[in-house]
């Protein structure tokens, strides 16, 4: 199933939801996927410096890694194509205007934005306003 590519339609139809759970980004310089499996990482990415993992706050504590800063995950319920142009820019710009950092992870079906714990509700409101604005543009 191919995702959408029209930016205005994607923005107008996206529904954002925020997780109750907090997450941290951490790096394991000599890490292996097998060793991290017990911590149930939400995401993994190989970098030159090591294996970056996105772990729940609880799992990070058990793994003995730094638990600050912590982030909440906002998931966008819109099926965008990995070839869609401008979605990340639109989301990042809206959040930047609100003073919120955006750590975006694009998965196969949805985009996920990790924002500072204390700004999660403001980020959610900001993205919902962006979607409402796009709906008005389509009319």
Q: How many strand elements?
A: 6
**Cross-sheet strand order for the largest sheet:** 2-3-1-4-6-5
Give the helix proportion (percent range).
25-40%
> What's the tally of helices?
5
> End-to-end span in angstroms?
27 Å
Percentage of residues in strands: 25-35%
Q: pLDDT average, as an integer? A: 92
Low-confidence stretches: none
For the biggest sheet, the summary is: 6 strands, antiparallel
* Element order: H for helix, E for strand: HEHEEHEHEEH
Give the C-alpha Rg. Answer: 16 Å
| Spatial shape | globular
Task: Kindly describe this structure.
The chain is an alpha+beta fold. It is 35% helix and 29% strand. The chain contains 5 helices and 6 strands, in the order H-E-H-E-E-H-E-H-E-E-H. It has helices at residues 7-13, 33-36, 57-63, 87-97, 120-138; strands at 16-28, 43-47, 50-56, 71-76, 103-106, 111-116. The chain has a 6-stranded antiparallel sheet. Helix 1 crosses helix 5. The model has no long low-confidence stretch (mean pLDDT 92).
Q: Can you lay out the helices and strands and say which pair or pack?
A:
Elements: H1 7-13, E1 16-28, H2 33-36, E2 43-47, E3 50-56, H3 57-63, E4 71-76, H4 87-97, E5 103-106, E6 111-116, H5 120-138
Antiparallel strand pairs: 1-3, 1-4, 2-3, 4-6, 5-6
Helix pairs in contact: 1-5
Search tags:
139 residues, six-stranded antiparallel sheet, alpha+beta, 5 helices
Summarize the structure.
The chain is of the alpha+beta class. Helix content is 35%, strand content 29%.
């Amino acid at each position: 199933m191919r995702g959408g590519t029209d930016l205005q339609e994607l923005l107008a139809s996206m529904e954002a939801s925020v997780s109750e759970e907090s997450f941290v980004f951490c790096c394991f310089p000599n890490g292996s996927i097998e060793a991290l499996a017990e911590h149930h990482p939400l995401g993994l990415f190989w970098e030159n410096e090591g294996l970056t993992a996105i772990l729940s706050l609880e799992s990070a504590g058990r793994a003995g890694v730094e638990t600050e800063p912590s982030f909440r995950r906002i998931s966008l319920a819109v099926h965008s194509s990995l070839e869609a142009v401008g979605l990340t820019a639109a989301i990042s710009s809206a959040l930047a205007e609100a003073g919120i950092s955006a750590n975006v992870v694009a998965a196969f079906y949805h985009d996920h934005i990790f924002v500072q714990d204390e700004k999660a509700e403001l980020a959610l409101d900001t993205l919902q306003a962006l979607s409402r604005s796009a709906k008005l543009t389509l009319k």
